[in-house]
Structure formats: structure tokens, C-alpha cells
Design goal:
Rossmann fold, 5-stranded parallel beta sheet, disordered C terminus, 196 residues, 2 domains, alpha/beta, globular, two-stranded parallel sheet
């Protein structure tokens, strides 16, 4: 069961997608929601202090709104450092079960050489990461899991199940070659019994 969800935000409309998805999942699972913002430490200390104070104020407003309007158990944290390292560290320190990120902002040269913040979080996080690319309109109705039948695929399916998502048929499983599995639902159940 998912008990705690961390949503990373940079206060942009893009990261609002992650917040909306976090709210939906928190309601669906009666889950605690944690919000975090990372202030870049590669700037003068006075700017870090101002950004930290402003971020804490914005997060406090969000938390108050979520508690009062949505009835969600919520808290917030401001981290200092590189965005991806701060997000990963916060996820580990707070013991969350799921981390939600919005779509990344394209920065062509940076993306090519070091990757996006989302990509770097995905590579280094020990916590499952959900990328909320689209604007959430409601709870997930169906999940599609790409699988190579490895331990990682198993973990992805178990995490989806813990989120209240279920795989209802073999057509919901996609092989590592990108083709739908051509096995029956019963055969898939025997091979992936954890999904049902």
C-alpha cells in the first residue's frame, strides 16, 4: 500500500500536473502528500536565502489549501542543492513510497550532455517515480506495463497494483520489443501471477 507520496515542484504550470496527479492519488489511497521544492545552491547565499524563504511561503500556502479545501494530510519541505539530487535525497529522507514529477523543461544542450532532471531522478532514485506528463482529468482507469519479465518489470507491476491500478488482460502487457504479448490471459496470469 502506498502511504506517502512526494510531489516535486518548481511552481511552474508543468509541475502543476504532478501536483494534480498527487492530489488524485492521495485521495484515492487516503495517502499523506508531501511537497518539495529544491533551491539551486549554485548562486550567492543571499539569493539562496531569499529563494528558500519564498519557496517555503508558497509551499505553506499550497499545504494550507490542500488541508482545508481537499482534506488531504499534507506537509512540505524545501531542499537546497542540485534539483535532481535534492529531489532524490528528499524522497529517501522522508521515506515516501512514490515520487511524482511533472514534465521537464527542454534545455537542448543541457539535456543532451547531462540529461533532464526527470531522467537523472529516474536513474538514481530508489523510490518509484511517476512522470505526470498530461494534465490529469481523473483517476487512472487502466495501466499499460512494458515488460521483459525481469525483476524491474515485476517491481513496476507490483507498484502499479499498490497504486490501485490493475492489469486486467494480457493485452495490457507489452513485451520488451514493443509488441503486445500474444499469449492468453490465463498464460499471462501463470507467468505474471503478481499482476492479478
Amino acid at each position: 500500500m502506498i502511504a506517502r507520496i512526494l510531489v516535486a515542484t518548481d511552481f511552474s504550470p508543468r509541475s502543476d500536473r504532478a501536483l494534480r496527479r498527487g492530489i488524485l492519488l492521495a485521495r484515492q489511497n487516503s495517502t499523506e502528500l508531501l511537497l518539495t521544492h529544491v533551491v539551486d545552491d549554485d548562486q550567492p547565499q543571499r539569493l539562496i536565502d531569499v529563494e528558500k524563504r519564498e519557496a517555503a511561503a508558497l509551499l505553506h500556502e499550497l499545504v494550507s489549501t490542500l488541508r482545508e479545501s481537499d482534506g488531504i494530510d499534507c506537509e512540505s519541505h524545501v531542499a537546497i542543492g542540485d534539483a535532481f539530487q535534492g529531489i532524490v535525497r528528499m524522497a529517501e529522507e522522508t521515506g515516501v513510497d512514490l515520487l511524482i514529477l511533472g514534465p521537464h523543461r527542454r534545455q537542448v544542450l543541457r539535456d543532451v550532455f547531462i540529461g533532464t532532471t526527470a531522467e537523472r531522478v529516474l536513474r538514481s532514485s530508489r523510490v518509484p517515480v511517476l512522470l505526470a506528463n498530461g494534465v490529469p482529468a481523473g483517476p487512472y482507469r487502466k495501466v499499460l506495463i512494458a515488460t521483459d519479465f525481469s525483476d524491474y518489470s515485476y517491481f513496476a507491476a507490483v507498484t502499479a497494483q499498490q497504486l490501485g491500478l490493475s492489469i486486467r488482460s494480457a493485452s495490457d502487457l507489452i513485451s520488451s520489443r514493443g509488441m503486445p504479448l500474444s499469449i492468453s490471459t490465463e498464460a499471462a496470469k501463470r507467468r505474471c501471477s503478481f499482476c492479478w
